[in-house]
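Researcher: I'd like a candidate sequence for this fold, 259 residues long. If you have to choose between options at a position, lean toward the conservative one.
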């Protein structure tokens, strides 16, 4: 049978999601835990791979197993065998055609910025630090240029392996809570470093280094070298994945909030 699982993790202690030689990954601890519960080797597919230091509150995976376990056993048995910075939230038996990555309709990320002149201590790995004051109205005006279907070459990493740079951004929202600014982006799919590059561009606009119209110019150039600084991974959260309603998966978890 095919099982889908919701996963939450603090990525600050891991070299990203993907399993790799000589470095601890989230995938490694997840697969090792599920293999113990299933009593056979388990390999999982994931909705979206995250980089070193990136967190998740609503990551989704799936795997196949013939082990007779109920949904609670997959969740609690898996959590017992994982470190405390990774946790399963729910499990569902799904139809055999479900695929965590290829059937995702949209994905959502949140980027949290500690916007103050002193560096954060408690949230040092949970939020990016930006000293210059950010004007969220300017950032919102710049973000409008990202909405819709575009070629996001200027916002992809040089090593990005995606076949096409064309993606559709459904929402970009910028909000402030006290000293913290959040950038929420929802799109059909994302390129490598796309959200971090969007955050870097919007922060340049928010602090007055660039005008809001510059975001559209960067997009039109289709040249990563003109796209500004890639924001740090601290503060980036994989929030949620949308799937067709027929799979009846749990709704979006609560958004991460600091401030």
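Model: Candidate sequence:
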């Amino acid at each position: 049978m095919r099982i889908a699982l919701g996963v939450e993790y603090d990525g600050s202690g891991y070299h990203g999601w993907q399993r790799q030689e000589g470095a601890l990954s989230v995938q490694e601890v997840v697969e090792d835990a599920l293999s113990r519960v299933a009593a056979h080797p388990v390999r999982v597919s994931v909705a979206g791979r995250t980089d070193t230091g990136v967190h998740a509150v609503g990551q989704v995976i799936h795997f196949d197993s013939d082990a007779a376990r109920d949904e609670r056993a997959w969740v609690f048995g898996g959590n017992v065998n994982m470190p405390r910075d990774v946790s399963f939230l729910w499990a569902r038996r799904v139809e055999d055609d479900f695929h965590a990555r290829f059937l995702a309709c949209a994905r959502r990320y949140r980027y949290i910025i500690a916007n103050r002149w002193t560096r954060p201590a408690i949230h040092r790995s949970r939020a990016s630090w930006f000293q210059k004051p950010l004007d969220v109205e300017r950032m919102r005006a710049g973000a409008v240029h990202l909405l819709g279907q575009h070629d996001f070459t200027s916002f992809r990493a040089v090593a990005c392996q995606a076949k096409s740079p064309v993606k559709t951004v459904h929402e970009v929202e910028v909000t402030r809570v006290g000293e913290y600014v959040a950038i929420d982006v929802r799109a059909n799919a994302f390129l490598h470093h796309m959200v971090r590059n969007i955050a870097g561009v919007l922060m340049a606009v928010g602090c007055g280094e660039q005008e809001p119209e510059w975001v559209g110019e960067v997009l039109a150039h289709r040249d990563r070298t003109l796209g500004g600084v890639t924001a740090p991974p601290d503060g980036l959260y994989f929030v949620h994945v949308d799937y067709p309603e027929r799979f009846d998966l749990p709704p979006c978890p609560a958004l991460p909030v600091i401030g």
